[in-house]
Amino acid sequence: MSAEFDKLAKEEEPQDPLEGFIYKLAPKGSLTLFRLLRDEGRELTEDEIAEKLGASKNIVRKILYKLHDLNILVYRRMKEESTNWNTYYWKINWEGLSVSLIERKKEVLKKLKQRLAYESSNRVVYVCHKCGREYKFEEALANDFFCPICHIPLDYIDRTQQVILLEKYVRKLEEELADELRRIQSS
């Protein structure tokens, strides 16, 4: 990798939720490559991308395939008659990207709902601050409110605020998903 591309990749900071999605799921340099394709607004070949980024074709190809696996990029293959080689033209898959983002949000929503169910059914717990283990009221009572492992007193924790916060996040994400699904269905 060239020093210039390496510097660009190190300076990657997501500027919006879409870039945050790419930054978290794709390898180093992906955001820089994505921005290049977005700013160019047209298909580019691997060679053009590598040249503009100052990176080796192998590194560019690795990032392109990862972004393709995430449904962020698509390519068009053209066979060169003179050389019998294939040339790949890459562009952003805007339609597939919104589907990928919706699927990711659904996964996050599912996990938030699971956490909310757990927290709701365990609002009052007792915790050992030495080993970190949590005990329901019945378990704490059976052990005279002492940790059976560390033999230190358990501390009372009320998770009502966490439950309220989780409920807020779940509602917000459900609303976002509903809006995005309506937008996709209407287009």
UniProtKB/TrEMBL annotation:
Keyword annotations from UniProtKB, A to Z: DNA-binding, Transcription, Transcription regulation
Annotated GO biological process: regulation of DNA-templated transcription; transcription initiation at RNA polymerase II promoter
Gene Ontology MF terms in the entry: DNA binding
PROSITE patterns: HTH_TFE_IIE (PS51344)
Signal peptide: none
InterPro entries, per database record: TF_E_archaea (IPR016481), TFE (IPR039997), TFIIE/TFIIEa_HTH (IPR017919), TFIIE_asu (IPR002853), TFIIEa/SarR/Rpc3_HTH_dom (IPR024550), WH-like_DNA-bd_sf (IPR036388), WH_DNA-bd_sf (IPR036390)
SUPFAM superfamilies hit by this protein: Winged helix' DNA-binding domain
Domain (HTH TFE/IIEalpha-type) ranges: 10-98
Subunit structure: Monomer. Interaction with RNA polymerase subunits RpoF and RpoE is necessary for Tfe stimulatory transcription activity. Able to interact with Tbp and RNA polymerase in the absence of DNA promoter. Interacts both with the preinitiation and elongation complexes.
PANTHER family, alphabetized: GENERAL TRANSCRIPTION FACTOR IIE SUBUNIT 1, TRANSCRIPTION INITIATION FACTOR IIE, ALPHA SUBUNIT
Domain notes: The winged helix domain is involved in binding to DNA in the preinitiation complex.
HAMAP family assigned: TFE_arch
Similarity annotation: Belongs to the TFE family.
Protein role: Transcription factor that plays a role in the activation of archaeal genes transcribed by RNA polymerase. Facilitates transcription initiation by enhancing TATA-box recognition by TATA-box-binding protein (Tbp), and transcription factor B (Tfb) and RNA polymerase recruitment. Not absolutely required for transcription in vitro, but particularly important in cases where Tbp or Tfb function is not optimal. It dynamically alters the nucleic acid-binding properties of RNA polymerases by stabilizing the initiation complex and destabilizing elongation complexes.
Protein name: Transcription factor E
Lineage: Archaea, Thermoproteota, Thermoprotei, Fervidicoccales, Fervidicoccaceae
Recorded name of the encoding gene: tfe
